[in-house]
Design a protein that fits this description.
With about 850 residues, this protein is α+β, with helices and mostly antiparallel strands. It is about 40% helix and about 20% strand. Bound molecules: (3S)-3,7-diaminoheptanoic acid and zinc ion. Its EC number is 3.4.11.2.
């Protein structure tokens, strides 16, 4: 594909004000009749040919102003429909196309999932249904008639409100949907099929009744009630926190089993991967419930941030995605524990975005160019995009932030907006110049902030010298300083918070210093004792922090910091250093009692009152965290061994306390998927995991008992996870029992696939090849592929990165096999190579060889060609 550049944006030459679609569903020959009401765009070029986008389309007929078009008047190919000289006055085009939804394995456009028909149009799937101006700044009012066999598809859903339904003859029926809100075609959707539903009614803040429903495959309605409840809570939250009311008479969610990503925010008709809808105590973990809640909220919140205000072009993707992730994170923080949610979000940010940002696929939150837009639905656009919004709120304060949001909704409702327009609302609402801040959208890479403190006991002053530097990223060799809000405090040796002298952070929000140059020195006065600085509280900016604190100082923060995030961070840093020392030495050098003692004390004080937080503290940094910390010439086996050594040592040192806590937390209360219950289960399972590392024989027994006795998936699967790391007969027995018990549940078998793909042993690759022949596995289903092959590539550091290159070869083979069928899923899988440059030379050479083999294969999709090309650059 050609390179598309932001600077080349120009307004559309034609507008489509209205579209009337008539879609006659058929398994192999669906007919789409589209009547488009067009006119020249006053802001476009006058009297130019009209060029509509298509993708693998077949034109059946074309009429201009209801008169069949003469062959000289137009040119049609699968990719394009050109009308050479369109009428000067507003006119209509009536376009008839035919598509085969059964043959659509890309899962873009109209396709079949199970026995249902569904669509996915973002980013550029609508052009696989009919010829259109498939760009987000063409806003159109859609009326959609859907017709199908009544037996095959009794349920027919579209965007907007239902306006009519009836018989269509020959056993067929129809439904007409009208969406009064102009929208880009990427938000278009239809669904047809035999589906069950759970339904309810939501009354909005102005008293309007909205029929809300979640549709699922027949027989699964009971598993959709949690999603429906999450939806109603999301609707109420957006009213309460952002003043945003829902705007149609109905809101439908449909769960399908074949879906390229998590879910899609089509206006009034969200379509979901069923993994993020279906849940019951027996089949879903607490993490699944939390994901369902977050994604239901995310798609719902898009109704305002994405749909009512959409993006001018795809370079502005973070305008809707970063903002909507920020909103769903805030929602989950309000519904659950704010501190624990923040820790979980930062873990994801570091694992996904920091990894992306330090490798060949690094790009700005708002990219300047792309070849394949589907490859830019990334952790940078989404998660770093959300961090930029959070920094904005930290910089200007909650009130100005809310005023800025109100202004944005007010001013840009019904339009396709840009990042500049968005940022200007906050500059206006706060009276601040946000010019430099906006550089976060343009400059890729993760800044490193270095902090050095000096206490002058005579003068009772504390000086903090801060510097920042951002490493180069592809296409951006030189970096400028960013605007970095550093939320901070000083903690005394015995734990008391030391009041900050006002001058130190003058001109900023209280407790926040803004580092906006390459370096700065902060001086605190009246500091009675040598303090321990607590920097980047709440992870106030997406940066790496280097700070010259020793273990004792870190443990002061762990114990006393008023900021829960930094408590957790301090414990992680201590653990990270212990693992890094073990990587160097090959053994845990001198057993460091301080960490075990601090954890023991912490558990005795906090496990009872805040189990969810305690579970986060007990979870060691991952192998990937350690690898990123090392940064270059990484040997994944050495990282694995070192982490395991530290874990074993810690588990053994704390074995008594862990066992005690484990049994205290054992409850026979019925499972409730709420935050409190989830927190207790998380801590109990963290105890089991660490205990089993320190005392493998007893741990195996305990895990086996929990595995068999569990009355919920959280506990059963956590136990299976512990067993999966203990080679032997018990593990194989448990795995067999699990697959037998859940043999009819594809989503649960996905967990089983994924767990086995992550076993850090050389036999895993063979196990994986065997599992690909399992009857439940299919290369055609994205969830299956991601569970088995994706987990191996993305979450099995030692085996994907085998020194002999067999892991790379396997994943490369899978990418190529998938590419012919589903390029988006193939390209996403290939991003597992994004960290290849930080490996030691032998593995680096093997990874490069595999990447070159992919890149050199003829007939690659633009998706895979783009990722392989950039990965090698
Ligand atoms: N907007 C969709 C993602 C579409 C991805 C297209 N390749 C889901 C979401 O972010 O809410
Ligand atoms: Zn989104």
């Amino acid at each position: 594909g050609a390179v598309i550049r932001l600077e080349d944006y120009r307004p559309t030459d034609y507008l489509i004000d209205r579209a009337e679609l008539d879609i006659r569903l058929d398994r192999h020959a669906t007919r789409i009749l589209a009547k488009l009401h067009l006119r020249a765009n006053p802001a476009g070029r006058p009297a130019v040919p009209l060029v509509l986008d298509g993708d693998e389309l077949r034109l059946v007929s074309l009429a201009i102003d209801d008169v069949p078009a003469s062959p000289q008047a137009f040119e049609a190919s699968p990719e394009r429909l050109v009308v050479h000289a369109p009428p000067a006055q507003p006119f209509t085009l009536t376009i008839e196309t035919e598509t085969d939804p059964t043959a659509n394995t890309k899962l873009m456009g109209l396709y079949r999932s199970g026995s249902a028909y569904c669509t996915q149009c973002e980013a550029e799937g609508f052009r696989r249904i009919t010829y259109f101006l498939d760009r987000p700044d063409v806003l159109c009012v859609f009326t959609t008639r859907i017709e199908a066999d009544r037996q095959e598809a009794p349920v027919l859903l579209g965007n907007g409100n239902p306006v009519a339904a009836g018989e269509a003859g020959g056993g067929r029926h129809f439904a007409i949907w009208h969406d009064p809100f102009p929208k880009p075609c990427y938000l278009f959707a239809i669904v047809g099929g035999r589906l069950d539903k759970v339904a309810d009614r939501f009354t909005t803040m102005s008293g309007r009744a909205v029929d809300v429903a979640v549709y699922v495959e027949p027989g699964k309605a009971a598993d959709a009630t949690y999603a429906l409840d999450a939806l109603k809570r999301s609707m109420a939250w957006d009213e309460r926190v952002f003043g945003r009311e829902y705007d149609l008479d109905v809101f439908n969610v449909v769960a399908v089993s074949d879906f390229n990503m998590g879910a899609m925010e089509n206006k009034g008709l969200n379509i979901f991967n069923d993994k993020y809808v279906l849940a019951s105590a027996e089949t879903a973990t607490d993490a699944d419930y939390a994901n369902i809640e977050a994604i239901i909220a995310h798609e719902y919140f898009h109704n305002w941030t994405g749909n009512r205000i959409t993006c001018r072009d795809w370079f502005q993707l973070c305008l809707k995605e970063g903002l909507t992730v920020f909103r769903d994170q805030e929602f989950s923080a309000d519904e659950r524990s704010r501190a624990v949610k923040r820790i979980a979000d930062v873990r994801v940010l570091r694992a996904q975005q920091f990894a992306e940002d330090s490798g060949p696929l690094a790009h700005p939150v708002r990219p300047r160019q792309y070849r394949e837009i589907n490859n830019f639905y990334t952790a940078t656009v989404y998660e770093k995009g959300a961090e930029v919004i959070r920094m904005l709120r930290t910089l200007i304060g909650d009130d100005a932030f809310r005023r800025g949001m109100d202004l944005y909704f007010d001013r840009y409702d019904g339009t396709a907006a840009t990042i500049e327009e968005f940022v200007a609302c906050f500059a206006e609402a706060s009276g601040r110049d946000l010019g430099h801040f906006a550089q976060w959208y343009e400059q890729a890479g993760t800044p490193t902030v270095n902090a050095r403190g000096h206490y002058d006991a005579e003068a009772k002053t504390y000086r903090l010298a801060l510097t920042q530097v951002t490493p180069p990223t592809p296409g951006q060799p030189e970096k400028a300083p960013q605007v970095i809000p550093i939320r901070l405090g000083l903690v005394g040796g015995s734990g008391a918070e030391i009041a900050l002298s006002p001058a130190a952070t003058a001109g900023h929000m209280p407790g926040v210093f803004v580092l906006d140059g390459p370096s700065a020195t902060l001086t605190f006065t009246n500091v009675p004792e040598k303090p321990v600085p607590s920097l980047l509280r709440g992870f106030s900016a997406p940066v790496r922090l280097e700070i010259d604190l020793d273990e004792d100082e870190l443990l002061v923060l762990f114990r006393y910091d008023s900021d829960a995030f930094n408590q957790w961070q301090s414990a992680q840093t201590v653990a990270t250093r212990a693992i890094l020392r073990a990587v160097g030495a090959g053994t845990p050098p001198a057993p460091d009692r301080r960490m075990a003692d601090a954890l023991r004390h912490f558990l005795s004080m906090r496990a009872g009152s805040d189990p969810a937080f305690a579970a986060q503290v007990l979870a060691l940094p991952t192998e990937a965290d350690i690898a990123r910390e090392i940064g270059h010439d990484v040997d994944p086996d050495a990282v694995h061994r070192a982490r395991q050594l530290v874990k074993v040592e810690l588990g053994a040192a704390l074995a008594a306390e862990l066992a005690e806590l484990y049994s205290q937390l054992s409850s026979r209360e019925p499972y409730v998927p709420d935050a409190a219950g989830a927190g207790r289960r998380a801590l109990r399972n963290a105890c089991l995991d660490l205990f089993a590392a320190g005392r493998p024989a007893e741990g195996e027994d305990l895990a086996m008992r929990q595995f068999r006795d569990a009355d919920n998936m959280t506990d059963r699967f956590a136990a299976l996870g512990v067993l999966s790391h203990l080679p032997g007969a018990a593990r194989e027995t448990a795995l067999a029992e699990f697959s037998e018990r859940f043999r009819n549940n594809a989503l649960v078998l996905d967990k089983w696939f994924s767990l086995q793909a992550m076993i850090p042993e050389p036999e895993t690759l063979e196990r994986l090849r065997g599992l690909m022949r399992h009857p439940a596995f299919s290369m055609g289903n994205p969830n299956r592929v991601r569970s088995l092959i994706g987990s191996f590539a993305m979450a099995n550091l030692t085996q994907f990165n085998r020194a002999d290159g067999a892991g790379y070869d396997f994943v490369a083979d899978m990418v190529l096999a998938l590419d012919a069928r589903n390029p988006q899923v193939a390209a996403r899988l290939l991003t597992a190579f994004r960290t290849w440059k930080m490996l030691e030379p032998r593995r680096r050479a093997e990874a490069e060889k595999a990447l070159r083999r992919v890149a050199g294969t003829p007939g690659l999709s633009p998706d895979v060609a783009d990722i392989s090309g950039r990965s090698l650059s």
